[in-house]
Amino acid sequence: MTSPTPPAGLDGWLRRYVTQTTTAVGLVVGVSGGLLFFDLAKRQVHSMHEWLGMAFLAIAVLHVVRHRGSFAAMLRQPRQHVLLALTGFAMLAFVGASFTAPAGGGNPVHQLADRALDAPLVALAPVLGLGPDEAQRRLAAAGVAVDSPAQSLATLAATNHTDPRRLLGVVLGGRRD
């Protein structure tokens, strides 16, 4: 038994591709969002997640166009009104919290990492269980020029044109990635 031939033109194209593409791109955006949420492979995933998120938005609009009748019927249901209102309130809570959060608010792990990146190497090294000389040696082995142990990883990253979190990784475990 063969399936009917989809109509030609935009509607035919939408029938053939939009749901499958929405599913594929949505899956990738969801997985990369999970990686970002848990701070896994953030540097490698961030740009891809943003660009594919924009592609997902465009494809989702095409999906709504393709299924406009079903979406119109769904939007008339009271249950959908409640779900849309809850989603809108959640979005406003997140956006509003970012504007009203006191200075220093947010994830304390990120705050700690930011402070570590701004601390002089001579103060940071003992917290990491190293002497300043060992921290400098690890950085030098990774090709980072250190003029003084009074420099912070943020300053060293700026002068060496690299990411300060990468330098923290170098000091912590000798990583060179």
Automatic annotation (TrEMBL):
UniProt keyword terms in alphabetical order: Membrane, Transmembrane, Transmembrane helix
The UniProt record lists the keyword tRNA-binding: no
InterPro entries: DUF4405
This protein's record includes keyword Nucleotidyltransferase: no
Top-level taxon of origin: Bacteria
Transmembrane segments: 17-38, 50-69, 81-101
Domain Flavinylation-associated cytochrome: 18-67
Name of the protein in its database record: DUF4405 domain-containing protein
Species in which this protein is naturally found: Phaeospirillum tilakii
